[in-house]
Specification:
It is a single chain. It contains 8 helices and 6 strands, in the order E-H-H-E-H-E-H-E-H-H-E-E-H-H. 30% of the residues are buried. The chain has a single domain, classed as Undecaprenyl pyrophosphate synthetase, CATH 3.40.1180. It has a 6-stranded parallel sheet with strand order 3-4-2-1-5-6, with helices on both faces. The radius of gyration is 19 Å and the shape is globular. The structure holds 3-methylbut-3-enyl trihydrogen diphosphate (IPE) (2 copies) and magnesium ion (MG). One 3-methylbut-3-enyl trihydrogen diphosphate (IPE) binds next to strand 2. One 3-methylbut-3-enyl trihydrogen diphosphate binds next to strand 2.
Length: 246
């Protein structure tokens, strides 16, 4: 019998398929993105109910700037309006909001909304919702590298101090458990430059369901799938079984 993984501490989600969902339903892409926000809202509620600790969702990649200007503007406006309408509720539900990604590029209005929501919710402890905005996994590693070079130049550290643990501390999400489960909706089996370093041992779950159709039942299916995985981290099944019974 396989040892089973327990409830994931940290789930990361690539919320993909809003555009295709809109097209299939004869709606604008904008309507697809709006429907996507609603799904996220429901899932957060569900995650609280399930007592999950950390959710990290991909809302906008660095590559997404290449979309038509109108769609980019629409997405950025949607982030502002969603933050404004949802943050009070998140706070009341003891949810901590945290953004990862290069935020310098955003408008003052969006940046202000983001920092206000972060500081309002900073002491909350039920669930942490990390939102990746203008994020890319390679940028994350690059940023960590620059920080290490800075520390070396300032003689705070030497080459001997540079190891995987130090790199971990310089990355986004350094303060959180390593992701246990990645869910990607929308049918593509790729990572699209999401948390590359951090997902070294993450279990990968892909579903064809488009993000606006992804509901709590389907989320539960992903969790069930996860609990059936045997996480070996390089060891043999036998070793894992032995440890479990020890
Ligand atoms: C994901 O849905 C949302 C963002 C990338 C912001 P898409 O907009 O990528 O939807 P598809 O892939 O075109 O269906
Ligand atoms: C990934 O989705 C980014 C987000 C979900 C925010 P994309 O739809 O942009 O990914 P690609 O470009 O198809 O790989
Ligand atoms: Mg897409």
């Amino acid at each position: 019998m396989n040892s089973k993984s327990s409830k994931p501490k940290h789930i990361i989600i690539i919320m993909d398929g809003n555009g295709r969902w809109a097209e299939q339903n004869g709606l604008t892409r904008s309507a697809g993105h709006k429907a996507g926000v609603k799904v996220l809202r429901n899932l957060i509620e569900h995650a609280v109910h399930l007592e999950l600790k950390t959710l990290t969702v991909y809302a906008f990649s660095r590559e997404n700037w290449q979309r038509p200007k109108k769609e980019v503007e629409l997405l950025l406006d949607l982030f502002i309006s969603s933050l404004e309408s949802e943050v009070k509720d998140l706070h009341e539900n003891n949810i901590k909001l945290n953004f990862i990604g290069e935020t310098d590029k955003f408008s003052e209005k969006l940046k202000k909304s983001m920092s206000k929501s972060e500081s309002l919710t900073s002491n909350n402890s039920k669930l942490t919702l990390n939102v990746a905005l203008n994020y890319s996994g390679r940028w994350d590693v690059y940023k960590a590298l620059l920080s290490i070079i800075d520390d070396m130049t300032a003689k705070k550290i030497t080459k001997n101090d540079v190891n995987e643990e130090l790199i971990n501390t310089k990355l986004s999400l350094a303060d959180y458990d390593e992701p246990d489960l990645l869910i990607r909706t929308g049918g593509e089996k790729r990572l699209s430059n999401y948390l590359l370093w951090q997902i070294a041992y993450t279990e990968l779950y892909f579903t064809n369901t488009l993000w606006p159709d992804f509901n709590t039942d389907q989320f539960d299916l992903a969790l069930d799938w996860y609990t059936k995985r045997q996480r070996r981290f390089g060891k043999t099944s036998e070793q894992i079984e032995k440890n479990k019974n020890a």
